[in-house]
Amino acid sequence: MNNNKNKILVTGSAGFIGSFVCLKLLKNGNEVVGIDNLNNYYDPKIKEARLKKLGNFSNYKHYEIDLVDKKNLDQIFKNDKPEKVINLAAQAGVRYSMENPLAYINSNIVGFANILENCHQNNINQLVYASTSSVYGANTKMPFSEHDSTNHPLSVYAASKKSNELMAHAYSYLYKLPTIGLRFFTVYGPWGRPDMALFKFTKNILEEKPIDVFNYGNHTRDFTYIDDIVEGVIKTLEASSTNNLKWDSNSPDPATSKAPWRIYNIGNSKPVKLMDYINALETILGKKAKVNYLPLQKGDVPDTYANTDNLNKEFNYRPNTSVIDGVSNFVKWYKDYYQI
After folding, report:
1. Which one of 128, 159, 239, 305 is most buried, counting C-beta atoms within 10 A?
2. DSSP states along 28-82
3. What pLDDT is stored for residue 4 in this prediction?
4. Cα–Cα distance between 9 and 22 in angstroms, integer?
5. Are 189 and 231 in contact (CB under 8 A)?
6. DSSP H/E element including 277
């Protein structure tokens, strides 16, 4: 672990991943400036409860603004002078992007452009930002590798995240801004998002309501526990993206560049069948699920499976939380939080 303490700006600090990343940074003695707009995409009470935990640290400072509010964002960079930035703020969710695509354009593209411009103007020495496994879109070659093309996204959400990677590359090339994009694979755990499968499944099974299972249960997902994700985020933040001196413009590698820009998969690298995941949840809850089988939903990919060789090799990234342990931890938190 790097012993140098930094002032770090974290966007999406009231979010699922963002709040855990902030907690780890704060416990490590860093000064953290958090930004979150506390929107109502899902229950803001959970976001407020996450923020309450962060507020227990004297080295945490919070701003409630939207990233599209460039004037106030500029002021935060100017006044607080962060050295590094972690951008985790985004409009999330594949399915919602079909109902409200402009929310994704504003938050994920305009908001991220404002982050990039501020990083450039304020000489930030490392930007780590959230991408997603959804960028693999129509790809079927498994496991998904960063060295493969990702030019066929299947949702506006995925397209917005692919745009982030391209925008970051332009800034890395033009202004030598070091950037690392992390493609998250199905993150789960305590304090998770209510719109995600584990949360919905747990709620409905406990309430003896049916659960909707898409693609007739034939999905596989590379479920990755929150603690393992946080470890990868922190490790990449403490490094600095470097130019690939062997990058070949005649055979361009999509994962690296002659600019200080990198893309990494961050996942468990152990895909699990959705029905096995549900069975694990049933075992832990001691209740059987009533299953409503549905066809593959538009925008969804049938399977995800991360090749994490690059992250393993360069950062010694080794996720070690089993699905049974991760789901158990979530259920314990859920019952405690809702006083069941």
Report:
1. 128
2. TT-EEEEE----SSS-HHHHHHHHHHHTT-TTEEEE---TT-HHHHHHHHHHH--
3. 65
4. 9
5. no
6. helix 274-285
DSSP symbol at 144:
B
Structure confidence by residue, pLDDT tens digits, 166-203: 999 999 999 999 999 999 999 999 999 998 999 999 99
Sheet holding 179-184, edge to edge: 60-63, 31-35, 7-11, 84-87, 126-132, 179-184, 261-266
Token pair of 233 as six digits:
């985020």
Whether pLDDT at 331 is above 50 = yes
Cis peptide before 260 (omega within 30 of 0): no
Burial class (CB in 10 A: 0-12, 13-18, 19+), 136: buried
Contact 210, 292 (CB under 8 A): yes
Instruction: Using alpha carbons, select from 11, 64, 8, 63 the residue that is nearest to residue 31.
Output: 8
Answer yes or no: is pLDDT of 275 > 90.
Answer: yes
Using 50, 70 and 90 to split pLDDT, how confident is the model at 42? confident
Per-residue pLDDT, 1: 42
Q: Which residues contact 89 (CB under 8 A, 6 or more apart)?
A: 11, 12, 15, 18, 35, 36, 37, 67, 107, 111
3-state secondary structure of 11: strand
d(CA 145, CA 161): 16
202 CB contacts (<8 Å, ≥6 apart)?
Answer: 281, 285, 330, 331, 334
Backbone angles phi, psi at 21, to 5 degrees: -65, -45
Q: What is the pTM of this model?
A: 0.95
157 is catalytic: yes
Average pLDDT over residues 55-78: 97
The active-site residue, picked from 136, 157, 171, 305, is 157
Sign of the dihedral defined by the CA atoms of residues 100, 102, 106, 110, in that order? positive
